[in-house]
């Protein structure tokens, strides 16, 4: 069983996976390769003069994998509650995890089918988002949402930051105390 399953490998999901894997939590990312960042050219991502969306996503996933995150390239078709967490089914298999972070960008249809509350989106062309609290919790205990699907701006710097924020909140809950990750120069 994984500690955390993240659906979506864009900036929000990749950032969340980086934090959870670096913290030593068994992390899996499930991605269907439908993210809008893969069509982007970025000139406004802090700390980077310019980068293509595909390069940004690839680098983020490589960072998360470096710390032990696993990537499954598949579309999640169902999420169901289990005694110890959740079962996520995809085309050719299934995984179980204690917590789920939805980082599905503009796609909300799967999670709506399992009873997550939604609300209208405020970004242009974003019709529906998950109704989350300030920490990223949905109305289903153990399911969190980050990034555009959680109602934050579609800009990659913002969705990446939201993914990190939600991951820190999940880690804090898993650890039973506030999680902080600070590396220092040596």
Automatic annotation (TrEMBL):
It comes from Ureibacillus terrenus. This is FAD-binding protein. It holds the Pfam family Pyr_redox_2. SUPFAM superfamilies: FAD/NAD(P)-binding domain. Transmembrane segments: none annotated. Coiled coil: none annotated. Keywords: Flavoprotein, Oxidoreductase. Its cofactor is FAD. Residues 2-109 form the FAD/NAD(P)-binding domain.
């Amino acid at each position: 069983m994984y500690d955390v399953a993240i659906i979506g490998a864009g900036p929000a999901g990749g950032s969340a996976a980086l934090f959870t894997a670096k913290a030593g939590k068994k992390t899996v990312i499930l991605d269907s390769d439908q993210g809008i960042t893969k069509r982007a050219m970025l000139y406004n991502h802090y700390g980077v003069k310019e980068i293509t969306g595909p390069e940004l996503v690839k680098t983020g996933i490589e960072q998360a994998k470096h710390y032990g995150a696993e990537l499954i390239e598949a579309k999640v078709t169902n999420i169901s509650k289990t005694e110890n967490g959740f079962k996520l089914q995809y085309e050719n298999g299934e995984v179980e995890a204690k917590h789920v972070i939805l980082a599905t960008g503009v796609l909300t249809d799967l999670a709506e089918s399992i009873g997550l509350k939604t609300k209208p989106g405020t970004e242009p062309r974003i019709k529906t988002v998950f109704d989350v609290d300030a920490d990223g919790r949905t109305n289903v205990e153990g399911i969190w949402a980050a990034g555009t699907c959680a109602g934050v701006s579609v800009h990659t710097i913002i969705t990446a930051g939201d993914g990190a924020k939600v991951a820190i909140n999940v880690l804090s809950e898993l650890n039973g105390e506030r999680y902080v990750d600070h590396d220092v120069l040596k």
